[in-house]
Structure formats: C-alpha cells, structure tokens
Amino acid sequence: MSLLEISSIKKTYETGTESVEVLKDINLTAEEGTVIVITGESGSGKSTLLNLIGGIDSPTSGEIKVKNLIVTGKTEKELTHYRNKFIGFIFQFHFLLKDFTALENVMMPAIISGDNSELARQKASRLLGDVGLSQRNNHFFLQLSGGERQRVAVARALMNDPDLIIADEPTGNLDERNSGIVQDILFDMVKKYNKTMLLVTHDTAMAQRGDIHLILEHGVLTEK
C-alpha cells in the first residue's frame, strides 16, 4: 500500500528578477515499510524536497499526499497538526532543548499534542532504551555526548508513532564511530516499528542500506 504519493511537484524560488527552479516535475511513490534513500550534490534540492514533504515549505505546483491526506494547500494550523501526527523528523543537528532532560526531549511531540501522561513517559523511556540510553533518562543536554544527543533525536522522532520518518543527513555531524552507531540504531528502529523512511545522506555505505536509492540532480529525481 502506498504511504506517500508525490505528483508533478515543482519548486521555484524568486530572487529579485530571477526565477530559480530547484525541483522540476518530481514524482515519487513510497510503499509502507520502505526505506528510500536520496543522494545528490550539495544544493541539488534534497533538503527542499524533504521540507515540502514534511510540510515545512510549500511547492510551487503539484500535489503531495501522505496516507491519503493531501498535504498541499493546507493552512499553517493544519500543517502543524500534520507534522506532529504523521511525520517524525531527524535532522543533521539534533535540536534538543537544553533545559529539558533526555526523557522530556523524547516526550516533546506528545507534550505538544497535549499528552503529558504517565503512559507517554513510559513510552519515551522505552524508546530511550531502544536506542541504548536507558541510563540517560534524567541527563540534560550538556551531560550527553554528540552521538547520544542524536540517538535521543531518533527516539523523539518515533514518539508520536508517525507514519513517515524524514531524516536529513542524520549522521552528518558525527565522527565515524558514532555515525556507525546511530546509523545502525536508526535502521533497526525503522525496521522494529515498521516505519517508512525518506533518508537524505552523503554517506555511500548508508545509502546502500535503503530499499530504493534515488539521485536528485539538476532538479530531477531518478533511480540509481
């Protein structure tokens, strides 16, 4: 069953008197449980595409549908609900809140949804255990290493049981050792919870672990 359907997406930015077409007629279908990896040179539009799918930005034309919900044309309030319910984000930078513990950071999507229950806390604790941080629940930002912070971000992305994980260079800020650890954890978590994932990376080894490998070049998406 198709979870994600992208039809004829274009994205053009107006810069003064010039129009820059970043994405040209992008079409993509992702089945449930599939890991799709997108590679391409810096500036090719990879992050732009993920932002459109995640409802962070809007396309110039075309349609994006996630689980039969048409994302394009929604109000900001509707997009906020969409992002919190349907999407789990993992960025190159972890974006953890410094004044909150690891557990509270993982809980944040639930808290935003109005759920600060004990069950939510228990789920956040289980997710931290899944990423190997069961002893770090009450540790704050400064008490965690870079690799641990990114593992917290992976757990946080799964907190609201999203349909789609969007990962934009999730190991890009890590050294080789921690990159390997986070990479293994990310793929294990996606498999364990049967998630669909769109992954952008420059890591060749990581790209090879996906089910489908696509290349974005000159605004055009093609299969490797």
The computed structural class is: alpha/beta
Assign the CATH architecture: 3-Layer(aba) Sandwich
CATH class: Alpha Beta
Distance between the termini: 23 Å
Poorly predicted spans:
none
**Can you say what the CATH homologous superfamily is?**
P-loop containing nucleotide triphosphate hydrolases
* SSE string: EEEHEEHEHHHEHEHEE
| CATH topology label | Rossmann fold
Tally the structural domains.
1
How would you sum up this structure, described in words?
With 224 residues, this protein is an alpha/beta fold. The protein has one domain: Rossmann fold. Helix content is 34%, strand content 29%. The protein has 7 helices and 10 strands. It has helices at 46-53, 76-86, 102-112, 118-130, 146-157, 176-192, 204-207; strands at 2-15, 18-31, 35-39, 61-66, 69-70, 87-90, 164-168, 196-200, 212-217, 220-223. The strands form 2 sheets. Strands 6-7-8-3-9-10 form a 6-stranded mixed sheet. Strands 2-1-4-5 form a 4-stranded antiparallel sheet, with helices on one face. A hairpin with a 2-residue loop joins strand 9 (212-217) and strand 10. The longest helix is centred in the C-terminal third of the chain and has 17 residues, at 176-192. It is globular and about 50 Å long.
